[in-house]
Amino acid sequence: MLSELMSQKEWFGDILGKVLFNREFSESQKAGIWPNEFTLHRSPDRAFLVLCYIWGPYLSDTAHDHGSWGIIGSFMKPIGERKYMRLDDGKKEGYAELKEVSSTVLQPGEITSVLPLNKGIHRMENRSDDVAITINVYGRSMRRGYIQFFYPENRAVTRVYPPKSLREALAIRAAGALSASWSEDLLKQVLSSELTDPIRKEGEYSLARLKSSL
Questions:
Q1: Which of 92, 97, 150, 157 supports an S-S bond with 63, CB 3.0-4.6 Å?
Q2: 3-state helix, strand, coil in the chain (%, to 5)
Q3: Where in the chain is the domain with CATH 2.60.120.10?
Q4: DSSP-derived 3-state class of residue 7
């Protein structure tokens, strides 16, 4: 079905028109992790959503995982993909060891797929000097609130959040890293408040880090 959708180009003009001229459509776009992301459709039962990514010349993302299954199609211009296998057990905070297992280029009309969590680590990249477009379909998320960015050359991994949650996470990390006289009280106050599970984990990790440094 995605291949059939991408074989037609006329409908995409309506999307671009909404982005440029429809204020209601623009305001309905939730700020996500990726600045080049546009939401095209959400199923009423939230079983899946359809996104579009517009890639500037030579733009690439960071190696990352997914909270759900996904199908990704090259809509305009070739798009590169690198897939990775995670070799470590994920138990060490901030550490990840990856092995690149494939590097391919999707031609317009071709698709690739990802699986949730460690089975879906990949990186997409526009290898041309022109704009590229992908159409992405994702299922219901198994893990909400964040994805993980991987840095294979440094054997590192970090949680990445949407803008609002990111500000909270960064403030919590800063409190844990400063080791000031007020840091422990502030982090305990944070943990006593209502938090999403990912942000609570940030608080627990930062508090444990602070105590280990004292």
A1: 150
A2: 35, 30, 35
A3: 2-86+101-146
A4: coil
